[in-house]
User: Fold this.
Amino acid sequence: MKYNVEVIVSFKKGVLDPQSAAVSGAIASLGYDNIVNLTISKKFNFQISGSTRDIVEEQVDNLCRKLLANPVIENYHYSIWEEK
Amino acid sequence: MKYNVEVIVSFKKGVLDPQSAAVSGAIASLGYDNIVNLTISKKFNFQISGSTRDIVEEQVDNLCRKLLANPVIENYHYSIWEEK
Amino acid sequence: MKFGVVLFPGSNCDKDAEYAVNFLGQSCEMLWHKEKNFKGIDCIILPGGFSYGDYLRAGAIARFAPIMERVVEFAQKGGLVMGICNGFQILTEVGLLPGVLIRNKNLRFVCDIVPIRVENTEVPYTYNLKKGDILKLPIAHGEGNYYIDNKGLEELKKNNQIVFSYLDNPNGSVENIAGIVNIKGNVLGMMPHPERGVEKVLGSEDGMKILKSVINWWGEKNGKL
Amino acid sequence: MANSREESYKLAGLTEEEYQKILADLKREPNPLELSMYGVLWSEHCSYKHTKKLLKYFPTEGEKVLQGPGENAGVLDGGDDIGIVFKIESHNHPSAVEPYQGAATGVGGIVRDIFSMGARPVALLNSLRFGSLNKQRNRYLLTGVVKGIGDYGNCLGIPDVGGEVYFHSCYDENPLVNAMCLGLVSVDKIKKGIAQGIGNVVMLVGAATGRDGIKGASFASANLEEDNENKRPSVQVGDPFMEKLLLEACMELVDNPYVVGVQDLGAAGLTSSACEMAARGKSGLELNLDKVHVREENMSAMEIMLSESQERMLYVVKPQGVEEVKKVFAKWDLQASEIGKVTDSGKIEIYYKGKLEGSIPTESIVDGVPLRDPLRKKPAYIEEKAKDIPIKEKVNYNDVLKTLIADENICSRKWIYSQYDYMVGNNTILRPGDTVGAVRIQGTTKAIGMTVDCNPLYPYLEPYHGGMMVVLESYRNLVAGGFKPLGITNCLNYPNPEDPENYYVLEQSIKGIAKACQELNTPVTGGNVSLYNQGVNTKIYPTPVIGMVGLIEDYHRCVTTAFKGEGELVYLVGE
Ligand SMILES: Nc1ncnc2c1ncn2[C@@H]1O[C@H](COP(=O)(O)OP(=O)(O)O)[C@@H](O)[C@H]1O
Assistant:
């Protein structure tokens, strides 16, 4: 079975992300004073094959914890859907 | 009116994305030989206030072109929804 | 004393580390990242550079190199492990040191020679130094902004794990942290480059004090002075 | 029919005269692949058709010259069997479109030129020009370019030991990004970009080939406004990590006895490197494009031949060495494909999917372009501006000083060079901020001093003497640091040469540079020409950037700029 996966990795609340801070500053200096609460996350898309959804889900979760996110500062969540 | 905005910025088709290539290599070397077609994009979330949706949309589009995406090598798309 | 310098794809201070070790009259072996084992090494150096291009997060991919399993084992048994710059990033990613190194606060790479203060002299790496000593050391990094949450910071302080701090914070690090050790004190991670500070003509010789400390500590412990 | 033929050679960037020459050389009509290959190799960038004659003014020989112009980089004799390999190159147009990637891939290109010669790169320099910083766009360009140069060079671990930057409105539309690299090699291990020995194997190594930067041929005049995804030439993206692996692998092959020739793939990709290597060896090549490792599906022969994907090299290897060479690249996780062999046909023959897709005489495509000899006219402004500028008598010198040191062209450059790793390698003796940059040669007491300079006002106001003065500035800088100057590389950044006034200035300043090099005994070992730096409203000042290299026998005797102590005397020397 083939599945599509999307993983979003974002900074935990309370961790100051220098990039978001810099982009917010740049937005303000462009004159947009009506924009607030900017966050930047990483989005991963890939395809995975496996015999059942559960097996695939476990692998994806593992991959997130081990590689795609650093649990000290980042959260992740994912969605998995079957390829049509 | 307050709106939530989500912007996704990704490499254009055909443009070399060394980061995705390196991460794909790492995934393979971790033993996941069932994962293919990995892409990595940036996701921005923010809130914007404005009197109408059209005005807001124009500002968002502008911001994407000027700051969030590099139109020479990146595509962007966004969704805007009203804050409840 | 014998040092081992791990060579990852993308390492670029491996030769500098070897040069510094040889300069101080010690022997050095280069360890290829694909090796699964090494023998007879007294201190491992994870050198600076851009292992795997620093893609994803600095150090995130290198921690899975085959040799890292043995490095972790070696460290857990009390072996000396020094992570310099990219090496520090790898040590946090692999979990031998707490916290993480993120992008510099101003998002710019910074290269300079900066003063750091010695905060802890209980570890091999500062064996010859006094608390409060000021060392001038080269820095060169884009992701040297040390982050740890408050609870973690309390732990670091309680266990006296902060070894070096910047006088003039160049990157936004929590508490001006420039270098830390693990609880046992055998694993050091630091952003400044002691291996570049071994000769006056290069702009600094204070790095020598750190490397000599390790050598002296080891010599004394093994009765080889 | 005639009409569409004219259209197609124009699309390839060729003139009627050039097209006639191609017909004569081929004795038939070129097919679209051949035409576009001619188009890129006969472009100004690759063929030097406007400057080849002028470059002959340069002195290129001397007792210290081991390799003059014509190879991937020049080589000077550093004594004790040490070859000093160095070259400068421009990446102006790409940086104007995409400052970060443009500058980054510029660094990548010049570094490959150095290690293709078998030399380990030990220093980088850069020369930059932007419009004034009071314009937002120029700040954006500066920020992107500096970050691009820094990220690429830092990742490679090559110290950036110096450079220069000027701001002037003449660069508003055409910023300049010139990068110089210097490397060291044992003299007996110098590699050349040559393909010879019938039956030897042609190998393409490094990054996979994609549709990057395919500009030549039909894409050149496709309407960029048109939002046609597939037709747009895509900007080249650099991968410094890949380059680092490539560098280390190539260094491991320096001693390999089976390697016959090496060249990097730069502008015009496989077309130029294959053709140039064959021309140097007076050989033919048979290329099989099915063997090229590609990044994208369904690439055409033309796309493969013209792709400017970065981080690739072309090797010519004796058959018995192929496995060994592959092993070294595999160790560094790099692909190496056997894509062809050396023949005695005197032609570049291209096969794809079982068909002969193109066959071009090597000599014709590399050296056959009809050279241009444009009109010259002395610009009127020169006489006008040569008049004395009155100096105001009553000024407050404190104010003048403050104005001067706050000026964008005089203030500290630390914001730039602190983003470059200038200490990696443990050899940097003089770093940015000093008169010149210098790296020592490990294992000796020697150091190499290097500098890039060009105050464009001089050649603008008085092309001949101005050209001389640019060389003299480099010379003075090196001497001030304690170095004996040995030779130069240069990057000639000029506006459109088809304008007689521009061509006059180009020729005169080249003559001035040549004269100075002659008198100072600093021959020219190579360089790069970037013309057409001209926009709708502005054209750049003549900007011949000089990269000069010198040697000191004992690096402990280098002189730094700083005042050393109180009470020391200060002298002003000269007229
Ligand atoms: N683009 C650059 N990259 C690296 N170093 C630079 C750059 N621009 C200037 N520098 C360094 O800053 C110092 C001052 O530059 P500049 O004002 O051009 O010097 P000078 O006029 O004394 O030759 C020099 O040491 C030079 O190497």
Notes: Residues D 126, 128, 160, 162-165, 413, 416-417, 432-434 surround adenosine-5'-diphosphate (CB under 6 Å).
